Amino acid sequence: MSEYAVTFDLVDADKDGLISAGEFLRLMEVLGQPVSQEAADAAVARLDSDGDGLISLDEFSAYLSSAR
Fold first, then answer.
1. At what angle do helices 57-66 and 37-47 cross, to 10 degrees?
2. Which Gene Ontology MF annotations are present (predicted)?
3. Which of these, 23, 44, 50, 54, has the minimum number of CB atoms within 10 Å of its CB?
4. Between helices 37-47 and 21-30, what is the axis angle to 10°?
5. Strand 18-19 relative to strand 55-56: parallel, antiparallel, unpaired?
6. What pLDDT, on the 0 to 100 scale, is given for residue 63?
7. pLDDT digits (tens, 9 = 90+) for 51-68
8. Cα separation of 52 and 50, whole Å?
9. In the chain, how many domains are there?
């Protein structure tokens, strides 16, 4: 399991292996940093390298690795 997989799994509420804008929105609320639906959509779009509108574990890991 990758170093980011545990965190990814916590965010992936429906356990479909992808993070949606809705799941990102809920994450931000839980962290006490609520964002608008538009901001959640934009955040997902930034990480979504394959254009499917969702964040995969690979996309999540690549983003966090590059942010270090």
1. 90
2. calcium ion binding
3. 50
4. 110
5. antiparallel
6. 92
7. 999 999 999 999 999 987
8. 6
9. 1
Range of the domain at 19: 3-67
Tally of CB atoms within 10 A around 38: 9
Q: Three-state SS for 3?
A: coil
Quick check: 37 and 21 in contact, CB under 8 A? yes
pLDDT in tens, 19-51: 999 999 999 999 999 999 999 999 999 999 999
CATH number at residue 50: 1.10.238.10
The model carries a pTM of: 0.90
Rg (CA), the chain: 11
- First-to-final CA distance of the chain: 19
